[in-house]
TrEMBL record:
Lineage start: Eukaryota, Viridiplantae, Streptophyta, Embryophyta, Tracheophyta
One of the GO BP terms on file: defense response to other organism
Cited InterPro entries: NDR1-like (IPR044839)
Keywords, in A-Z order: Membrane, Transmembrane, Transmembrane helix
Keyword Transmembrane attached: yes
Transmembrane segments: 12-31
GO cellular component entries: plasma membrane; plasmodesma
Protein name: Late embryogenesis abundant protein LEA-2 subgroup domain-containing protein
Length: 208
């Protein structure tokens, strides 16, 4: 009888731990958010204008990668530099704030005027530029909004002699913070699975 009672208590504790682990994992997966995917799809500076001043034209593509969460964007600041080391800024443009539903895509266009053509690299040859994107977002989960999360991404890209983006594919904008969050998320899933499997193994031993 004492052994039976001890076994029942052990099963009860294991069941509680197992259920708590599954509940915590479910909540973590439900509340976990992923940053929007940002890409530069167009970059163009016409050089055939008669005036020395020209205008930069660009296009961004933003995708909400969350399956069941909306995204509220604050104003998006986009800055271009004439080299990957970001020593000199060409100019900046701001995209107004907007809301994006779950799994939705958005295309945003912008311009930067009064750029001195003579100071631009790449006249007649391939050159490399850099783009920075900075904003803050809030995620809509059911009827609630999260706190603001800062996003700072960027990328190097090549342009040809007429100052047009060389590659037809979108240039994905990335940050080291995104890579760190992705790594932490994978480790979180690994440890959660490890705990669940360990609880299940302990439960099996208790039944034996």
């Amino acid at each position: 009888m004492p052994e039976s009672g001890g076994g029942g208590c052990c099963r009860c504790c294991c069941s509680f731990i197992f259920t708590s682990g599954l509940t915590a994992l479910f909540l973590w997966l439900s509340l976990r958010t992923t940053s929007p995917a940002c890409a530069l799809s167009k970059f163009y500076i016409p050089l055939n204008q008669t005036k020395n001043q020209t205008t930069l034209e660009f296009e961004l593509r933003l995708k909400n990668t969350n399956k069941d969460k909306g995204v509220y964007y604050d104003p998006i600041n986009v800055t271009f530099f004439d080299s990957p080391n970001r020593s000199r800024s060409i100019g900046s443009s701001t995209i107004t704030k907007f809301y994006q539903g779950h799994k939705k895509r958005a295309t945003k266009n912008g311009t930067i005027a009064n750029i001195d053509r003579d100071e631009l690299p790449g006249n007649g040859s391939t050159a490399f530029f850099w783009v920075d994107l900075a904003t803050s977002v809030r995620y809509k989960i059911l009827m609630f909004k999260t706190k603001r999360h800062k996003i700072r991404v960027g990328a190097q890209f090549a342009v040809n002699g007429t100052i047009i983006k060389v590659y037809p594919k979108d240039i994905k904008l990335k940050s080291n913070a995104d890579k760190i969050r992705s790594y932490c998320g994978k480790m979180g899933v690994f440890f959660a699975n490890f705990l669940v499997l360990d609880d299940a193994r302990f439960w099996t031993y208790a039944d034996d």
